Amino acid sequence: QVQLTESGGGLVQAGGSLRLSCAASGSIRSIVDMAWYRQAPGKERELVASISSGRFTNYRDSVKGRFIISRDNAENTVSLQMNSLKPEDTAVYYCNADVIRRSLAREQYWGQGTQVTVSS
Fold first, then answer.
1. pLDDT for 42-74, tens place per residue?
2. Quick one: pLDDT at residue 51?
């Protein structure tokens, strides 16, 4: 089994910064892609940013230039540095990992979610 444990959410004023972290643990051989998604009330879950094992990154347009995704392959962690936060960034943020388990099975895993609230 694999677990994703997130931390770092909270309440911040517009223009402020937060850093989210996610650690993967368990029966892991390697992790292909890691990503952060978010879901605001009444909206669908959306991709915020992703990073490959080779550290190629992808961002949704609304966060480009403000958010930075990074990962530590040795520690199986992924982080999201969020700067210049806006009220529209308010959502529950979820960590996602595309994992190759020690059994060689490949599965997607999700964290439990962490609330980010940006006040105006």
1. 999 999 999 999 999 999 999 999 999 999 999
2. 98
Q: Which residues contact 60 (CB under 8 A, 6 or more apart)?
A: 46, 47, 48, 49
DSSP summary character for residue 61? G
pLDDT of residue 24: 98
The helix (H) or strand (E) run that includes residue 117 is strand 114-119
State the Cα–Cα distance between residues 35 and 37, nearest whole angstrom: 7
Q: What is the DSSP secondary structure assignment for residue 83, as one 8-state letter?
A: -
Q: In 3-state terms, what secondary structure has residue 15?
A: coil
By the 8 A CB rule, do 22 and 112 touch? no
Per the listing, tokens 């995704």 go with: 69
% of the chain with per-residue pLDDT over 70: 100
Element of type H or E holding 30: strand 28-39
116: Cα within 13 Å, side-chain hemisphere:
31
Whole-number Å distance between alpha carbons of 78 and 71: 4
